[in-house]
Amino acid sequence: MEETGQHNSSTKDHGRDSAADTNTAKVLSVENKLAAKAFEEIKLEVEKNNIMLKTNMTLILSFLELSWFLLAAWMFSKNMAAWSVGVIWGIAQFRGGLLMHMAIHRAIFKSDTMNIWFGVLVVNIITGISWRWWSLFCVTTRRRHQAHHRETNILTADPDLKTYPMLVYNEQLPTSFITQFQTKLLPLYLVMYIPIWRLSSVIKCIKQGWWYDIIFTLLHWAFVLLIFTFSPYSFGEIYLILSLKEAISGLTLGTIFMFGHFLEEVLPSSDHGLDPTLHVLKTTNNIESLNAYVNTFIVGFTGGLSLQIEHHLFPQCPVDKLSQLADITKTAVHRQGLDYHSTSFIGGLKDIWYRLEQIEDVALERHVVKTS
Description:
This protein has one domain. It is built from 16 helices and 2 strands. It has helices spanning 2-48, 56-65, 67-77, 82-104, 112-127, 131-136, 144-150, 182-191, 193-208, 211-229, 235-261, 276-283, 292-301, 308-313, 322-335, 345-366, and strands at residues 286-287, 342-343. A two-stranded parallel sheet has the order 1-2. The protein is globular and about 70 Å long. It starts with a helix and ends in a 6-residue tail after the last helix. 35% of the residues are buried. The model is unreliable at 137-142 (pLDDT under 50).
């Protein structure tokens, strides 16, 4: 009798699980259809309003970003205070990182060739990081950043999830003993963000034999060595300039990157069954403000990365058109009754910090040191 009772209980549990799976599949099917309808509506509006058209304004805004490098060079030539040169150079490198992102998505020039060479100029020669590493490297043969867009927040495939154990923001990701202290180590991690990129790119370029990329990157460091050799700055001041440059660009870029997908759903595998648009809506978040002027500033400050939903739906959209695209997208998504995730800048920072603290507790339980 006892065995029969256990069998009946197991059968009932299996039946409930099957019913739950069936209901989930039905909901997903409906959501997929709604997402597909929303995308078709967005696409029609994009074509109607020439949203994807690169204009002179796109080029002007892009080249204005390079003025930060010119300002840093001018301050350096005038032997201004080392800390001020480091700060401005750090801001310039931050803006260069945003330009790199735009160029790889062909969002600046109409010509793909122009976008590529502009990317090489900004990334390799001016910034000193390998363009090919960032645009092509991936755990598979696909491009690294392309893989992030295609496999956003997919546990087994998105290269941008591989920040553990130093930075873990979802329970599905691996943790270690050090994860218990990630809120305390976060500033250090962000400060080291760019140097880690540099080291990774050099190692990958050497392994792959990307010698042209190495040569272009060496041009950057040869120029840096040359100007510091003949500068009046002391060794300590040079160290301060370079440290501030790396720290400021890492802190700004790293913080902005966290907003896009940090708090959103992580999917276990590529076999998720989500429509591409629904996939973006479930795994991506925007930074927004109720004030239109503040919104404009945020979009400009982040190089369009504040509008990640639109960027993932239309990666080649010029930055100066993203706000218009966001209005179209939000209207279409809401009309279909789907969720459109956004947060304020301050609210997002608070949520990220709280999430990190939650994962610290998870890591503490997983890696508790047992005393005898």
